[in-house]
């Protein structure tokens, strides 16, 4: 399955990408070997993903989502995940440890 996914910090930077192996990609993002964008912006939570049977359909959806306004993307995420829970544990990954914020606890 091809999987466009949206990863984010709650109400922070949104990242949309396509992968043929979502679990592997999540491991890469978490260990720092993922994309430069993810390394720069610290986007580690998986808050939404969609499954497609072929890559052209997944890529078309990725392009569509990238053209959307931010509010539309937030509404899409919150339609199924209103509290922005990390969905990675539902795919068998360990939950992320809470990271200390730079501006306080």
TrEMBL record:
Pfam families listed in its UniProt record: GIY-YIG (PF01541)
Similarity remark: Belongs to the UPF0213 family.
Chain ranges of the GIY-YIG domain: 1-76
InterPro entries linked to this entry: GIY-YIG_endonuc, GIY-YIG_endonuc_sf, UPF0213_domain
Name of the molecule in the record: Putative endonuclease
Keyword set, alphabetical order: Endonuclease, Hydrolase, Nuclease
SUPFAM superfamilies hit by this protein: GIY-YIG endonuclease
Top-level taxon of the source organism: Bacteria
GO molecular function terms noted in the UniProt entry: endonuclease activity
């Amino acid at each position: 399955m091809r999987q466009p996914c949206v990863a984010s910090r709650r109400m922070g930077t949104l990242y949309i990408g396509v992968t043929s192996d979502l679990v592997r990609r999540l491991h890469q993002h978490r260990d720092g070997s993922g994309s430069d964008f993810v390394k720069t912006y610290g986007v580690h939570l998986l808050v939404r993903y969609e499954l497609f049977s072929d890559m052209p359909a997944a890529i078309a959806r990725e392009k569509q989502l990238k053209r959307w306004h931010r509010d539309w993307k937030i509404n899409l995420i919150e339609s199924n995940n209103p509290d922005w829970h990390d969905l990675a544990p539902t795919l068998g990954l360990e939950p992320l440890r809470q990271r200390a914020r730079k501006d306080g606890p």
